[in-house]
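User: Predict the full complex structure for these chains.
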Amino acid sequence: SQQGEEDPQALSIQEGENATMNCSYKTSINNLQWYRQNSGRGLVHLILIRSNEREKHSGRLRVTLDTSKKSSSLLITASRAADTASYFCAQGDSGTYKYIFGTGTRLKVLA
Amino acid sequence: KAGVTQTPRYLIKTRGQQVTLSCSPISGHRSVSWYQQTPGQGLQFLFEYFSETQRNKGNFPGRFSGRQFSNSRSEMNVSTLELGDSALYLCASSYESGGGDEKLFFGSGTQLSVL
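Assistant: Here is the predicted structure of the two-chain assembly.
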């Protein structure tokens, strides 16, 4: 399977703490994207990082990419209860018109 | 700008029946993708359409089919339903690519339960 893997599978932290989740993928990429999914709903795009970038920021989000290790990490700083959701990485493949999603990390932020 | 609309939101069917799910993409988006999400398998790619043409299909049996209309709206159909088809079916649209460097916009999904 080409599906990426994320760890941890689940993460529980206190409000105000930072949350880090990691994604490993198997094939070469053009870009890697991160999405958030609130329970039972659709996914929302968070950030895209291209293969020639090493780090990207968006508000409280920081994404890093290490193509040599085929891995990426998403850091959410100063977490809030509203950040409680599942987070997925996704690798895009323009040649096949599909995205391969990771297994997801369930984040719970306790107030 | 209206988001991606999926109908119905919930469906309950019995084994052997067939079902049709509908997706209206964001206005101007021509690529529509479908994904199946289950707790055990995560998000699995079903198919992608662009300008009424299927450009790719995932590893699903022929019971799963889809189409796209000239207004970019898309439908997917599952025939002869099995218990294992119970899942959240997600539709996503993008301007062109469906798998390149565009972000996907997802609908809220259709939760299908097969009894």
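The interface with chain A takes residues 4, 6, 31, 33, 35, 42-43, 45, 48, 50, 55-56, 58, 88, 90, 92, 97-109, 111 of chain B (CB under 8 Å).
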